Amino acid sequence: MRKSSLFAACLALYGMHASAQELAGEALRAPLDTVTVAGRELHLSIGPGSGLTHAHGSAWTDFYAVSDRGPNIPCDESGKVLGKEVCSKSEVIFPIPGYTPSIYPLLVQAGQVTLRGEPIPLHAANGQNFSGLPPELPKGEKPLNGQLQPLPFSPNGVDTECISALAQGGFWIGEEYGPSLLRVAANGVVLERLVPKGTAAYYQGSSVPVRAVLPPLLARRKLNRGFEGMALAPDQKLLFVALQSPLANPDDDTAKNSRIDRLITLHLDAEGNFAGMAGGYAVEFPRIEDFAPGEKQKDLKLSAMSAVDDHRVLLMLRAGNKVAVYLANLDGATRLIGTAWARPDTHPSLEEQNDLAKVGIQPLALQLLWESDDAFGKGLGKVEGMSLVDGKSLLFISDNDFGITGEKSTVWEYPLSDEAQRLLH
User: Keywords on this record (predicted)?
Assistant: First the structure.
């Protein structure tokens, strides 16, 4: 379908952009700290926009958002912030090394977003706060403070990017470092951390239990492209989790060019705890020239998910100023767990495939629900969180990177057309 006719179809399905509303969100822009890095003064704000979920079992006004690892400046991007590059490519500056990744309870009502409680810091049962500093992983970053001095690695370090709230209280949170999954109590206590098989040794000294139960291939996540999308089925029995980008399988060059991402599902017990792996599936990204002309394939990212039922989820993809939402159906898709495609020694790998049908793989069926135009996508900002609201609208939240470059967190609500609502039901 040509882009013009595709866009027209999207407008018919989803409704005109004019129906979208940016909500007042001053509470999401509160000051955090003023710091000096390499002689440059930075005025930082809170950064709650890395993930978003409805508070299951509560009114549709109640949501939770999550911050990421805290204010940080990748050294290869330091020139944009500090006027010159001040450190090496493998290093990252953490202007507030003691920052604790936190959950933010949100109230969305009457056209505005406010905090409905104090932020909930992630911490261990012994009271030790979690850190945004990285664990000492084979493919990891080296942390520096604002004076460009080395910082210690942290076995409790997380780069939190997605969140789901359980109806009985508590959360599941996905993060990018391991990548790993955190089971979190309602008060922010991290009950356990699930990591890929073969990687538990990298978390020695952690103040929470670490279980290596996730597929080992996940450890080949591209740097800063770990778990980014998470959704909880309405019946609370299945957790959907997706990587932001294709795995570096077997190498980084593969990740740059591949269009094959992965989504996994986990069984949960009646208390919301991990009860075993349920499935693993291929997600075939659009070609970048069709999705966002002028961008590169490696720039296309899966940034958020929201569940419709126990086999359908909404996937939010973005690249440049383009944002699109797809309805993904697991029914009929090839289950990869237990196959050669789940093993690290399979060559060529799944990520190297150009034609999945030729190797007998059926990816998730994707149906485009809505896409922005470039101008409207730019207005959204760096959108990283999304929640389906009662099957009637979508709520988005953007990540402001703690205001390092002056960005502001924004929240937008998009009413779904009657046709789109019928499709989801």
Answer: Signal
Q: Which two tokens stand for residue 217?
A: 């291939």
The three-class DSSP label of residue 160 is: strand
Q: What pLDDT score was predicted for residue 372?
A: 86
116-131 pLDDT, tens digit per residue, is 999 999 999 999 999 9
Nearest CA to 261 among 224, 295, 298, 296?
298
Q: Which of 1-5, 114-118, 194-198, 351-355 has the lowest mean pLDDT?
A: 1-5
CB 214 within 8 A of CB 195: yes
- How many residues in the chain? 425
Domain assignment of residue 284, yes or no: yes
Q: Is 88 exposed, middle or buried (0-12, 13-18, 19+ CB in 10 A)?
A: exposed
Provide the domain limits for residue 216: 21-424
pLDDT value for 139: 85
pLDDT of residue 18: 44
CA atoms within 13 A on the CB side of 16: 2
Asked, for residue 391, whether it belongs to a domain, the answer is yes
44-74 tens-digit pLDDT: 999 999 999 999 989 999 999 999 999 999 9
pLDDT of the residue at 112? 95
pLDDT tens for each residue of 284-339? 999 999 999 999 999 999 999 999 999 999 999 999 999 999 999 999 999 999 99
CATH code of the domain in which 388 resides:
2.120.10
- Looking from the CA of 389 toward its CB, the CA atoms found within 13 Å total 21
**Which of 23, 135, 111, 114 is closest to 65 using CA atoms?**
114
What are the Cα distances from residue 290, in Å, to 3, 329, 374?
8, 21, 13
**Using CA atoms, how far apart are residues 373 and 378, in angstroms rounded to an integer?**
9
Tally of domains in the chain: 1
Number of DSSP helices (H) and strands (E) in the chain, helices first: 6, 27
Question: 41: buried, middle or exposed (CB in 10 Å: 19+, 13-18, 0-12)?
Answer: exposed
Does residue 264 form part of some domain?
yes
Quick check: is 15 in a domain?
no
Q: How confident is the model at residue 5 (pLDDT cuts 50, 70, 90)?
A: very low
For residue 369, give the 3-state DSSP assignment.
Answer: strand
Q: How many CB atoms lie within 10 A of CB 31?
A: 10
CB-count exposure of residue 191 (10 Å: 0-12, 13-18, 19+): middle
